[in-house]
Structure formats: structure tokens, C-alpha cells
Design a protein that fits this description.
The chain is an alpha+beta fold. It has one domain (2-204, 227-314). Helix content is 13%, strand content 32%. The protein is built from four helices and 14 strands. The protein has helices at 61-64, 81-99, 135-145, 150-156, and strands at 2-10, 22-24, 34-43, 66-70, 104-116, 130-131, 161-169, 179-182, 192-200, 234-243, 251-253, 261-269, 288-290, 304-314. The strands form three sheets. A five-stranded mixed sheet has the order 1-3-11-8-13, with no helix packed on it. It is globular. The termini are far apart. Belongs to the asaB hydroxylase/desaturase family. Residues 204-230 are annotated as: Disordered. This is Methyltransferase.
Length: 316
């Protein structure tokens, strides 16, 4: 089964030479223009094989940059931040250890975001094709979140490590504003544009954001849309990839994805094809975005979802 939708890509004509693009994490503004492109989207369910072996599309994240599994969680409401950070984080670690190939030495969860398509929610579904992390941002996340002396961190970075986004609907199927993913094999490096990611500094002690409180979880507030184009009160705290349009991109989604299912998105892999330590055929990333499925029934409940970003380290 295939549907279609409009996908918002970066407009290359809106990127000024010599000026790095930026976007705000709360979705309030981009320094560039997004242009809609209509694309067909295949239902990933039609391509899944039961009891799939490693190396199978849709069930092995190294093949295409994404994988989906039936993996119910004990946590259901995600309304208690402390419960998410303890119980659900442990469930995510169990999931990764059971589904990823290789000998995992350590998992460090550094962020989670709950999105609700509700005007009162500070985090909405993102309608922009993007990748969550660049290689530079991935290494910065390791150095920021893994508490080891610098020589040990340097040694850790010589082993394989990844950033994986674990995405799950909350409460009801994600029929409204489902998540679409792009097969890594249909992309090329020239499709990607580094973008500074700006975070609000309102909850920190200084205008630079350089104090002891470096944790943004649970501090999201609605942006001031009257000042959307201003960067005052924001600071650069990450780097993502914006994605340029390409007819070659192959898009997939999990139709009516339920809260008992998860979608793993690869944001970075130090063993990805093309990297200094890369392996041929190992996916590097998976661009993704929310989109409007024209087949969504009238009155469908607004999408709610949680995404958990994880640093995954291997013995290799």
C-alpha cells in the first residue's frame, strides 16, 4: 500500500553563500525557506519479513538507516518525567541491546522529546526533512555527556559508536501526522546541509547558556512567535542536517503505527560507509519528517509521540 504527501525540503536558493543556516529547536523559525515536494510513500509493513535475519531491510538498521519492531513498553502515559528517565530509559536500553548487531559496551541516553499535535504543546511534529545529528555534533555529544577523562574519551571515540533515535507513538496509533523515513541508500552526501540548532536560554543562568544546567529535558515552553525571526535569547547547542530535494529519495512510513511498536532511526554511525573506519554497506543516517497523509480519516486524534536519543558504544 502506498500513499503520498507533501514533503518540506530546504530550498537551496534560500541558503546565502558564506552564511551558515540555522533553525530553532522549538520549530519557531528557520533562516532558510522550506519548499513542498509531492512524493509517494510506501507502507513499510508491506516490506517486513517475519523472523527476519540480520541484514534484512526494515529489520536491520544498518541496511537502510531505520528499523521497526513490535516492542511493547511498560510505560504507557509518559506523563511523569522521572518515570520516563528511569523506567522507560531502561526499556529503551533493553530494546537496543536485543535488536542491534554487535557487542554493545555502553548506552548513554542524553535526550528525549515528547511531541503532541496540540496548540498548547511546546513541541509539535516537525514537518521538515532532516537528520538529527551531524558527525561533528555526534562527537560533541559524546564529549558533553560521557563523564570520562579526556584520554579515555579519545580512546572511546576510536571504537564504534552511534546515535540512535528511538521513536514511539503515545496513547493511540500515529495515524495523524505519521513519521516518514528515507532509505539511506537513496541519498547522497550532497543532499545534506549542516544547520546550527538553536536552543532557548531562558531557563539558564547566563545569556550564553554556559552554566551548570546543561539539561533541556522538561524545560520546553511555547515560543514567542512575535519574535520568531530573532536569535536573541537563543544559543547554538547542536548541529543537524537539512536535506535538499531529490527525486531519488525512497520514502517509507509505518501505517497506523501503534504504541506497542518502535521505529529506530540512525542519526550517526562511526562505522558507516564513507567514514575513516567505515564498512561497506553500513547505513550512515536516515532523513525523516512528519507528513500529512491524505488518507487520514476526518476527526483522527492528534499525534502524540516520544523520541529518545541514545549514544550506543561497542567493544569493536
Amino acid at each position: 500500500m502506498t500513499t503520498s504527501g507533501e514533503f518540506r525540503y530546504m530550498d537551496p536558493a534560500s541558503i546565502s553563500a558564506g552564511t551558515k543556516p540555522w533553525s530553532k529547536v522549538d520549530g519557531a523559525y528557520f533562516s532558510f525557506t522550506l519548499t513542498p515536494h509531492r512524493r509517494s510513500v510506501a507502507n513499510l509493513r508491506d516490506h517486513l519479513a517475519p523472523d527476519a535475519e540480520p541484514g534484512t531491510f526494515g529489520s536491520d538498521i544498518d541496511v537502510s538507516g531505520f528499523a521497526t519492531y513490535h516492542f511493547p513498553a511498560a510505560e504507557k502515559t509518559f506523563s511523569d518525567d522521572a518515570a520516563v528517565r528511569t523506567g522507560y530509559y531502561d526499556e529503551v536500553k533493553d530494546l537496543l541491546r536485543s535488536k542491534l548487531q554487535g557487542s554493545i559496551s555502553h548506552i548513554e541516553i542524553f535526550d528525549h522529546t515528547i511531541r503532541r499535535r496540540d496548540p498548547t504543546s511546546p513541541r509539535q511534529p516537525v514537518q521538515q526533512v532532516h537528520v538529527d545529528q551531524t558527525p561533528a555534533a555526534a562527537e560533541a555529544r559524546v564529549r558533553r555527556h560521557v563523564k570520562l577523562p579526556p584520554p579515555e574519551l579519545d580512546a572511546l571515540l576510536q571504537c564504534r559508536y552511534q546515535i540512535i533515535n528511538v521513536w514511539r507513538p503515545i496513547g493511540h496509533p500515529a495515524t495523524d501526522f505519521p513519521l516518514a523515513v528515507i532509505d539511506w541508500r537513496s541519498t547522497k552526501p550532497d543532499d545534506l546541509v549542516p544547520v546550527d540548532l538553536l536552543y532557548p536560554l531562558h531557563h539558564r543562568g547566563t545569556t550564553s547558556g554556559d552554566d551548570d544546567d546543561d539539561d533541556d529535558r522538561g524545560k520546553e515552553t511555547l515560543p514567542d512567535l512575535t519574535r520568531a525571526a530573532s536569535t536573541e535569547g537563543y544559543g547554538v547547542k547542536g548541529e543537524t542536517y537539512g536535506v535538499l530535494p531529490s527525486e531519488a529519495h525512497r520514502l517509507y512510513y509505518v501505517k497506523d503505527m501503534t504504541p506497542d511498536e518502535v521505529l529506530l532511526l540512525k542519526c550517526f554511525d562511526s562505522w558507516a560507509e564513507g567514514k575513516p573506519q567505515g564498512r561497506e554497506g553500513v547505513a550512515a543516517w536516515s532523513p525523516h519528517t512528519a507528513f500529512v497523509d491524505p488518507a487520514t480519516p476526518e476527526g483522527t486524534k492528534g499525534r502524540e509521540s516520544i523520541e529518545v536519543r541514545c549514544l550506543v558504544f561497542y567493544d569493536e
